[in-house]
Design a protein that fits this description.
Layout: H1 2-21, E1 32-35, E2 40-43, E3 52-57, H2 63-67, H3 69-78, E4 85-91, H4 103-113, E5 119-121, H5 126-131, E6 135-136, E7 138-145, E8 148-155, H6 171-180, E9 195-196
Parallel strand pairs: 3-4, 4-5
Antiparallel strand pairs: 1-2, 3-7, 6-9, 7-8
Length: 199
């Protein structure tokens, strides 16, 4: 009996530690990563006057990321001229673990797709770790908060990775539209289906 209680307490402790270690700070500070489109560094602070910054972690090797390429293009194009809603794409994979995500491949594909948004490389997972990103594709919406940013949404782009026409819930678009119209965000997270980031 005592042994059972001991294991239960240990299990609860491990669960608490695991939960607290994955907790992300409310304050997302500035970060800087190389932008393959411009060939210069990009900093989050460049979008400090936006109402929302949409960050999507994506990759070239992941089949789920490929399913979303057109949908991401449509979203970026929809808000292209809206200075209050900004998009950033980030490739977070270590090229030693995912050769498809080598810098030159990311650059070639990004320039060919011409999305009109910064495409950043995070090979050391600096920003992925900062935000708590685990998969590609995974979306984050940041909003200004006390001189920095906070996470308003984290999770899936929608509820059907494989078949766009069967999507019933456009999670990311709903969050963007709520922020654009000064409405409350109904859901700040959703389960993400995708490939684990190659660290």
């Amino acid at each position: 009996m005592l042994k059972a209680i001991h294991y239960t307490i240990v299990g609860l402790f491990i669960c608490i530690v695991s939960t607290s270690s994955s907790f992300q700070s409310d304050q997302i500070q500035d970060f800087t990563l190389p932008n393959v489109i411009s060939g210069t560094n990009f900093s989050l602070s460049q979008y400090k006057n936006a109402d929302a910054v949409v960050i999507i972690f994506t990759s070239l090797y992941c089949p789920y990321a490929k399913f979303y390429e057109d949908r991401i293009s449509k979203l970026a194009d929809q808000y292209r001229n809206d200075s209050k809603i900004r998009f950033i794409l980030i490739n977070p994979n270590n090229p030693a673990k995912s050769r498809a995500d080598a810098s030159d491949n990311v650059t070639t594909v990004a320039k060919r797709r011409q999305l009109g948004v910064p495409v950043l490389i995070d090979q050391s997972q600096q920003v992925a770790d900062l935000l708590g990103a685990e998969k590609t594709p995974e979306a984050f919406v940041l909003t200004p908060h006390q001189g920095s940013f906070r996470i308003a949404y984290q999770g899936a782009i929608d509820d059907n990775p494989q078949v766009e026409k069967d999507v019933r819930h456009h999670y990311l678009r709903s969050v963007i539209d709520a922020i654009s119209t000064s409405q409350p965000v109904i859901s700040n997270s959703s389960p993400t289906t995708g490939c684990m980031i190659k660290r």
